[in-house]
């Protein structure tokens, strides 16, 4: 059985817009996309192929020195902290502005699957790329025919 909502609005173009605005997730109001400092957490792509895992972090406007990438107990953590302060003085006029941005993302790696000593990271054109090579024993093996005796 399917429940159908009926609208008493006499203008057919308005119900869909207003129903979607108030009932759907046009604006995500929860905190899942924000850090503890109410700054946006960068978008992340995680890819896997036969040879490696790859993580891409979209962080335009940052520098490679703004990031820290750490591996501890099969948990890869990417974090950043940026502090800016501007001061301007002209006669009696004074202006001081400062900002603070930070984020931290952690990823649990499959235990024993990654060659931890070969993990590499590179920041280029606003994207932080992290490559996590797989161990030989976890890479897919081609099918092998077994002789029957």
Account of the protein in words:
With 149 residues, the protein is mainly beta. It has a domain at 39-135: Immunoglobulin-like (Sandwich). The protein is 7% helix and 42% strand. The protein is built from 1 helix and 7 strands. It has one helix at 13-23; strands at residues 44-48, 52-58, 67-72, 75-90, 93-108, 120-124, 127-133. The strands form 2 sheets. It has a 4-stranded antiparallel beta sheet, with no helix packed on it. The protein is rod-shaped, with a radius of gyration of 25 Å. The model is unreliable at 24-38 (pLDDT under 50).
Task: Itemize the secondary structure elements and their pairings.
Layout: H1 13-23, E1 44-48, E2 52-58, E3 67-72, E4 75-90, E5 93-108, E6 120-124, E7 127-133
Antiparallel strand pairs: 1-2, 2-7, 3-4, 4-5, 6-7
Largest sheet: 4 strands, antiparallel
Per CATH, what is the topology of the domain at 39-135? Immunoglobulin-like
Separate helix tally: 1
Please list the strands of the largest sheet in the order they lie side by side: 1-2-7-6
Query: Into which percentage range does the β-strand content fall?
Result: 35-45%
Number of strands: 7
Mean pLDDT: 79
Helix content: under 10%
Note poorly predicted spans: 24-38
Helix/strand-derived category reads: mainly beta
Reported CATH architecture of the domain at 39-135: Sandwich
End-to-end distance: 59 Å
Order of helices and strands: HEEEEEEE
Shape: rod-shaped
Q: Give the C-alpha Rg.
A: 25 Å
